[in-house]
Amino acid sequence: MNWVLVIVGAMVGAPLRYLTDRAVQSRYGTAFPWGTLAVNITGCLVLGALTGAATAGAASSHLQLLLGTGLCGALTTYSTFSYETLRLAEDGARLRAAVNATASVAVGLGAAFAGVAVAEAVWG
Fold this sequence. Notes:
Number of helices: 5
Strand content: under 5%
Helix content: over 70%
């Protein structure tokens, strides 16, 4: 049963990642990887909220598999973040590469902490 939950979550997360990335990139252009940044931050927020809910006893292990492992695992992408940051640096956009790396880590962590805080406010 556990693997089915992960697969179902990933079946939603993967297309959601692709569609979100395309929508953001079409709106803001391709000079900076806004789409990847958006999906990664969203995933951090969802995973933070899920972690906070689980800590408060409001999220089951099945929900953690469905949303945490399946959805967030397919939605977020460390490999694409790394690749896009490397491409920016190789193309001479070193400042954009540094901003991408810094923003991804700092804002991603902030989103995770915010998710935990929201979950604690709701279920704590």
